[in-house]
Amino acid sequence: MSAMQKRYWVVLRFLVLLAAPLTSACMVLPGVLPDMESDAGFDQARAVEVFESGFESIHERYIEKIPVSELALNGLKGLGAIDPALTVSRNGEKVILSYENKDSSQFSVGQDMSVHDWAMLTARVVQRGRKISKELIGASDEKIYEAIFDGSLASLDIFSRYAGAEEAKNNR
Prior knowledge:
- The chain has 172 residues and is mostly helical.
- It is built from 7 helices and 3 strands, in the order αααβββαααα.
- A 3-stranded antiparallel sheet has the order 1-2-3.
- Helix 1 (3-23) packs across helix 7.
- It is globular and about 35 Å long.
- The two termini are 24 Å apart.
């Protein structure tokens, strides 16, 4: 089996494993993440679980180790697929969310952030983006997950891609 075929099968297994938490009903008790802002249209607690599971799966299963910070930042840049006016960048210890080339919000990051920390940051940036972007507030959770994970996977190789909940269900 060639290296490319091995990589393909590793990524395929990742996509099937990632789809499981997305299609299951994740139960999160209210108040578990008290510092998360509420939004009737976006379940941040569930988003943290989905992002954490996805980032962990990619980080642990991809052939070459990819820093979680890189996965999360590339994922956040994927929000531009929903609204091109939204951009995310990193400047040292800050992640900057901009709208129409104007800084909107800054988020502190550190060198020792865990997968969970990056998942929480991702959910917070999405939440803040939903306050400034009509396209993002109108996007379903699934569309947001797709944009984040497509962004995360885009720099890995041509075979890596996100399979949404419906596609994963059909593939099973």
